[in-house]
Amino acid sequence: xxxVNQDVVEKFLDSNPAFAKEYYDSHFRAQVIxxxxxxxxxxxxxxxxxxxxxxxxxxxMVFDMVRDLQExxxxxKAMFNLMRHLCFVMRADRMSLFMYRQRNGTAELATxxxxxxxxxxxxxxxxxxxxxxxxxxDTGIVGHVxxxxxxxxxxxxxxxxxPSKNYMCTVIGFSSTIGSFxxxxxxxxxxxxxxxxxxxxxxxxxxxxxxxxxxxxSMPIVNKKEEIVGVATFYNRKDGKPFDEMDETLMESxxxxxxxxxxNPDTYEKMNKLENRKDIFQDMVLYHVKCRKDEIQxxxxxxxxxxxxxxxxDEEELEAILVKTLIDSEQSEIFEFHFCDFEHSEMDLVKxxxxxxxxxxxxxKFHIPREALVRFVYSLSKGYRRITYHNWRHGFNVGQTxxxxxxxxxxKRYYTDLEAMAMLTAGLCHDIDHRGTNNLYQMKxxxxxxxxxxxxxxxxxHLEFGKTLLRDDALNIYQNLxxxxxxxxxxxxxxxxxxxxxxLYFKTLLGCQAMxxxxxxxxxxxxxxxxxxxxMMLETTRKEIVMAMMMTACDLSAIxxxxxxxxxxxxSVAAEFWEQGDLERTVLEQQPIxxxxxxxxxxxxxxxxxFIDFVCAFVYKEFSxxxxxxxxxxxxxxxxxxxxxxxxxxxxxxxxMLEEAKKAKEEAASANSVAQPASGGAPASQSKTCVLS
Length: 693
Prior knowledge:
The chain contains 30 helices and ten strands. The protein is of the alpha+beta class. A hairpin with a 2-residue loop joins β7 and β8 (197-202). It starts with 5 loop residues before the first helix and ends with a helix.
């Protein structure tokens, strides 16, 4: 019997490729895959129970890699592992990934993960920015593939074209192992011009292993919009044969998975950058809005009193200062519906805002740090822009009206102290960082806020701004609440601030009115006020409906102030509307609606009457019916309606007189033009002049 040695076996296997493949699949394929996917070289895998892998099972393994990609924060590592597996499935010796980008307006491809093979490591293949190879489009095989967005299969690079030195690859720099390989690569290749793209021919081995390039299969990676994302390139089939049509078909399928792996880390990186950018902007906002150390001394003057900073004082020391610094509640009239901010400075309003938390009894109950409370309300005042109407004064007035409805209007009987605190905070925050223009203008002008928030644009911005302040430890008045308490106050703030969007109020006008009216009607069916209160305290939905209507009443409260206050505030509101109208006319090149057209300023009384009739009257009528303590708001609303109506009638009378005078003048001129020819008077030209005068 002839001796069997390695040479004999190799000759037999070369002569019987079908048997060789069957034997390989049965005895070695599973172990090779295990080695390829293993992260440790010392891992021992029992392959005795492994079965032959079908193409379906191979695809499932690719999906596993993609799933790993989505869950693994180290995206490059997951992509590298996927590329190693793709190399095995494609029976390719090596693989590289080139990413498409635009730099200084020039489209180009740059190496991302280069020279991936079975034994390669991520550190060797991941190309740092200072070691990139950059291809202009339509240069080299990968450049051509990116340009035409079609697969290129080069069966034998040594049989194509003539050497050419006219290549345009740009080598940015080299470092570490990959840099050494790239140096060797470009030293030992000659580029060839072929079919409008470049190929290369190796003159000698490219590295110490003796590796040379024999055939190339290159495939574009595109996104859903068919835009080029990158190029995946395989080199050298392991059996020495060129890549065939089956390889092309397989690559076309597998490259989709690679495309996902490419897009995911890019998206992840973009999300990280956006998150970082958001953090930077948030830090900038807080820097300019947050109450500074020198500013807090305007209220907590600890340097003067104790010779130290507020954070070095205990709560008793800070309380002692606030007792002397804060304005007396009765003197400031914060309990009154007729409260007038004209008599107070903006700093006075900050102090009044702090006082309202004390009057609610929540400072001690919920362990609000005095310094945090002062800093929070002070920062709110800074967060409002210095614009005509939607400024800190308006923000405070809404918060003060909420406080008055709860305390003087006796609506607090339905709400816990925690809920009342959330409602007051929502009132103070409700218009922070208002721009002086409405939601519709944000959409028409393409403001980023409109792109960020689909509906209730400004209201959602005010809400998020307020939450941003509350997330800062130095401003967080909720810091000592437990988890459930914190979730509740944030939930109530969400409802309350979004409820100030009048567009939502108009959109669901009949529904809102019907629900609130039903609650008011139901209250009249209870003989005992205490029984009704107990019932309402347990009715979460009804309480939220009442709270939303309270926010509307607070936001519109200027209309229910004494006439001397309302008339001035109405002019401020109108002035801000006219400013938006000017922007619509100049920036958007659109004609503003009458309410925002300063050319129709004389129509203000008429517009105010309509506003009272169709928006405000229901709110204050129902609240006064609900709680008689709120009746003063309705009485002042009705009085203001009379005042505006008187101005409207006066204006209409003037218009009528002007119209009558104009008509009389036209009739006289017409009669004069008829009488002159009959009496043989002046010539026609002279008569015409008389009419025009």
